[in-house]
Design a protein that fits this description.
Elements (H helix, E strand, L loop, with lengths): L14 H11 L4 E5 L6 H15 L3 E6 L7 H18 L1 H4 L5 E7 L2 E7 L10 H13 L4 E6 L12 H11 L4 E7 L2 H9 L9 E4 L6 H14 L6 H10 L4 H14 L4 H14 L11 H10 L10 H11 L7 H13 L3 E3 L7 E3 L2 H14 L1
Parallel strand pairs: 1-6, 1-7, 2-5, 5-6
Antiparallel strand pairs: 3-4, 8-9
Helix pairs in contact: 3-5, 5-6, 8-9, 10-11, 12-13, 12-14
Amino acid sequence: MSLAFDLPYFPRNGLLEEVLKVYESGFKQGVTLFAPRRQGKTSFVKHELVPAARELGWQTIYVDLWKRRGEPELALVEALEATVEQRQSGLRRKLKLKQVKAKAKGPGGEVESTMEPISHSPEGVLENRLDAALTALVGNRRTLLILDEVQALAGAKRDDFVAALRTVIQKLQGHLVVFYTGSSRDGLNSMFRLQKAPLFASAMPVHLPDLGDDFIEDRLVFLAERSQAQVNKEALERVFDDLGKTPEFLNEVILHLIIANDGNIDRAMEAWQEAHREAGAGSVLSDLRPIELAVMELLAQRDHPTVYSAEALSFVQNAVGKSEVVAAAKIQSAIKKLAKLDLVAATGRKSGDYEIDDRAVLLQLRKRWTTNG
């Protein structure tokens, strides 16, 4: 579901200042911001980080690695090369002219110059293409490179690629700083935190601040300006909590409140859930195997146990019945499948502690459990 209009962006208190202080200190060349999807990472980049960087005179380069997560290394290189060519040849590149000749009158007579757009061979060594493109883009300018959903590189097919990325970033130290965002805590560990991780200790982690009472007050003011209906603040806080404090989802519920103009937040929440069901938010559940669905139902429980505990094994076994014998290895296989589908993620708090990443799916499971229970 998409909003018919954008609700005003609400800033993350102190986050921009924290990021800029890291860059200005010179102690770290990179900053990582990892949080579940739809929590507002990209909105922060768009509305706060990029404008601030440009105000400082920095050039900004943004690459979303999630759009081609099956081949993220190629996606990164081609995005950088496309930016190089766009900046160097502009319209001439669009017209696909191999050679452009321009004549100009000079003080000493007529001068002819020839300009040829840079050509990148698809067969070239990818690591060399990465180095060439990023070096050309940065030059001597202060540059902020934003790599969105960087955990996609954890699955890069070329073992040396991320190491090569780190090398060229280090080479450009003093001119280049990097902002990494991601939604996978496993990806964060494998890319940055483990001793053997390719980008280990190269970036400072920052936390995405939760939106709280001031955000709720701001949304209530917005509602009051566009709706005559009264909305209960406590009810809006409860819904925000049910939505995992996901600002995008609360904004969608607010849109339903504006359309209905009746202040009935429970009805707006039902309309939101129905819209997500129609958009296929829960359709993936029907394609899951019984044990995978049982694991999802386990994780939908409030204060659920870790997935490999005796309590969890008993829960899953009762859910699948006698059709198969549930063991820790089968739970592990189910978790891997669900994580690959972006349905669950490790919390990082302790071993075996997972949670459902898609809040719409979580609420649908809880509603179904309540109805059937």
